[in-house]
Structures are given as structure tokens and as C-alpha cells.
Amino acid sequence: MKRNWIGIAILIFLFAATAALTANLPTADFYENFYKAARTALAGHSPYETIYNSAPWGVIPLFPFALLPPVPAHGLYFATCLFILVFIAWKLHASPLTIVAFILSPTAIGALLVGNLDPVAISGILFPPALGLLLLLIKPQVGAGVALYYLIDFIRNKRYLDGMKAFAPVAAAYALALVFFPIWYVRIFTNTSVYQIWNRTLFPYSIPIGLFLLWAALRKRNPYFALAAAPFLAPYHTFYTYTVVQIGLLHSDVETYVRRDVLHILLSIFLWIIMLVFNL
Fold first, then answer.
1. In the chain, where are the structural domains located?
2. pLDDT tens profile 225-237
3. What is the pTM of this model?
4. What is the SS3 assignment for 258?
């Protein structure tokens, strides 16, 4: 019991230290996008009065941060996102070397510095489908692969009622968004050219990779491989969205083909080279 309390105290100290050290780091999206959208929603207005473009329920996890002044809110959000990524890797029993290689990749660093919702959406992989899909589909380019995996798995195993229960919350959320926040759909389908400057998808040439990972997920009954499939099936995502692929490949099933530490060291080096060569 004493060791548990010591461990908790160390984690709290590391979290607080991370928040303090990162609070003043530059961030592309946090202040002007997500922080402002959450504060606007807390004030009783639509988050779409700002430049916010993710799912309307995506601001809900941001409410605790929006109650704080901007700088400490940013530090705490950075620390939270970092701890989410590390916790998932730890949960998958990745080695310390594998975790370090992953966190030091340009995609993971980018996801943390930008201050976007990707880590929050990725955290949905940790929860049962009903709640997990709500988080994952805040950003379809993050969670669409897992949604397809669950859908096919429920149908294949004739668990139709379980499938309806799993998809009911996210289906209701999308339907309510259409009623109360139709501007979200308008922005998705009419502002695509505005965001092309950030688009780093390989779609449609990457579809075979996404389908292969989805097949592997179904064969192994492993939703993490389906998580890795999403960016390859999406017509739009940024460079740091490939963090999703890295998270998916942290699963121990990868060890069937290659050691995880070797894979993630090579992935990190490869992504750094790609980023530097193409100025991403």
C-alpha cells in the first residue's frame, strides 16, 4: 500500500512538473481554437462561433481546462495529452525504449505542440465501444478504422443488439449535431480547400494499406491495428495524425513480425527524415 502511494505521488509530481515546464511552449491550435471554443461553449454559445471545426461534443473534455487562465490551461492540457499517449503505451506493455522512441518522433511531438484533440480522440481505444466511439469519432481520421472494425465484428458474430447498443450513442450524437449544429457539416463539406495546406494524406493510394491493417485487425481480433488503419483511409489529415498509426503498432501482436523497439526506432527516424526532407 505504501508503495502505491509513493507511485501516485511520483506521478502527480511528474504531471505537475510537465505542466509547469510546457505551459509557455508555443502552440498552433490550443489558444485560438480549442481553448476559445470551450470557453465559448461554457458561456452558453455555440463553439462554432470560433474557428472550431471538430465534433461539437469534442469541447466537453476541454471544459476543465477552459475554467483556468490560458497559460496554465495549456500546460495542463499538454501534460494530459502526453500522459494519455504514455499511458496507452504502458497499458500495451511497451518497453521504455519503445515509448521513448515513440514520444520523440516528430508526429508525437507535433501532436503535443499543436494542442489539437488527437490524443483525446485516441484515448477512446481504452474504453468500451459505446463510450470509446464517442471519443474516437470526435475526429473520424483518428477513429474511423476502429468504428469499421467494431461494425464488421458485431455483424460477423451476429451480435446485432450489442452492435446497436455500441453505436447508438455516437449515432445519436451525430444526429443531434445535424439538428443543433448544422454549421459543423457545412464547414466539413465546404471549407475543404482552406485546410488542404495542412493535408498530408496519401489517399487514395494508401487505401490498400488501410484495408490490410483492417484485415489484420479482424484476423487478430485487435482493434489497435484498426486504429492504425484510419489515416490511410482518410482523404484529409495532418502529418501528426500518423501518431495514430504509431499507437496502433505499439500492440504486442506486432512482435509476431518485428520487435517493437526496433520498429518504433526505425519509424521515428523515418518520420524525422520525411519531415525534414519535405519540410512538413
1. 2-277
2. 999 999 999 988 8
3. 0.93
4. coil
